[in-house]
Amino acid sequence: MKTSNTSLDSGAQQQARSVLGGRLSSPVTESVDQLYEHYFPPVPAYEGLPSELHAFVHTDTESRRKQLNELRGNHQEYGRFLHSCLGEIYTNIFGYHDGPSASVPDDDLEVAMFSARIQLEREVLTHWLPFPDVPRFENQETAADYLDELADTNAGVHHPLFDYLATDAPRENLDMFLRGETIRNEIVDDEVALLTVGLQGTQKAVVAANLWDECGRGKLENFHTFWLRRLIEASPGGWEGFADYRSSHPWFAKITSNTNAMLLTRPAYVQQAYGCFLIFESWVAPHFRKILAAMDRLHIHDDDIRIYFAAHVAVDPRHAEELADGLRFQRPRMTPEEIHKVVQGAHLAAEAGRIQYDHWLSFFTGQPLYKGKDSSV
Ligand SMILES: [Fe+2]
Ligand SMILES: [Fe+2]
Question: Measured in angstroms, how far is the CA atom of residue 315 from the centroid of ligand 2?
Fold first, then answer.
């Protein structure tokens, strides 16, 4: 064993200098200051649980089980109920003012919501969207190669919804979809922060680096959510228009966020959450290229509207590659069971995305739900 040495080695020296540099005190422009005046995420303050969730939360386990059992026969209503309720419940995890105990704890309500949430999640994973059967890999290198391939070929990445947006969608449908994307992405930095919990080694470093990017590497105007602030400010109706839209946001637009939140907040699903996030990051660039093509077609040249999408086309292929490398080069080495969980999460994400995009496409075109090529739902 080496004796301790009080002089810093080069590894420790690395951290003697702040990664923030002079950023904390460097002045921001007036327009940056002005955009930071808005509460973010731009959610309404809590005003009570929706009545159906209130009833579900405050009833006993057996009554909940019966209710879910009955809903299974009505596929659309079943999905709507599960995802509307979970979406409301998850707001309370993130600490923003749309949650019932964001400023004052409410022990009884939080316990009841937690138990309702576990029951809803079990329902999702048992009946609505179970973990699919996936190939097994003995080592993390072959699993990483497999996930690189899955990222290019899954049913969500080349979904026809994005061709529709690029070539056919009228402006109002594009605007609606952009607002949906804003809602889906408004707390990604917190989702990435949650993903760091329970990981170690290379995987943790990769996710922490991703979080540092989400936080603009310390520059307020480069926070990814700042690009969303610019998008909201420049969109029809501005912040008020966005608030109006939120109340009619379709339930199916929450499928991927809910899937992610479910995996991120359950201790047993840490590795599934990593695989899920890998897939979500990998399809950002192909999807956003189609959205930018839609903007070209509709003569939307405003940088404030385009920046979120253009920036992610540049950044997210690297994030996806790094997440695959985080698996490939993970130390300590992963067990086959841990590797299996990452692959499971990746497939679950692909399927959640496919279902969500099927619903959007059907909603916009009035056609029956599109079934992707490896459709099972
Ligand atoms: Fe981002
Ligand atoms: Fe990213």
Answer: 6
pLDDT, tens digit, 9 for 90 and up, residues 126-172: 999 999 999 999 999 999 999 999 999 999 999 999 999 999 999 99
Cα–Cα distance, 122 to 225 (Å, whole number): 31
Cα–Cα distance, 40 to 128 (Å, whole number) = 31
**pTM score, two decimals?**
0.95
**7-61, pLDDT tens digit by residue?**
778 778 888 889 998 888 888 899 999 999 999 999 999 999 999 999 999 999 9
CA 224 to centroid of ligand 1, rounded, Å: 5
The Cα 75–Cα 86 span in angstroms is 17
* Closest ligand relative to 187 C-alpha: 1
| Residue 117 Cα to ligand 1 middle (Å) | 27
Q: How far is the CA of 327 from the centre of ligand 2 (A)?
A: 17
Cα→Cα distances 251→254, 257, 258, 259, Å: 6, 11, 11, 13
The ligand that comes nearest to the alpha carbon of residue 311 is 1
Angstrom distance (rounded) from CA 142 to CA 147? 9
Mean pLDDT of 293-306: 98
| pLDDT tens-digit map of 46-58 | 999 999 999 999 9
For the chain, the structural domain boundaries read 51-128, 140-365
Domain at 140-365, CATH homologous superfamily: Heme oxygenase-like (1.20.910.10)
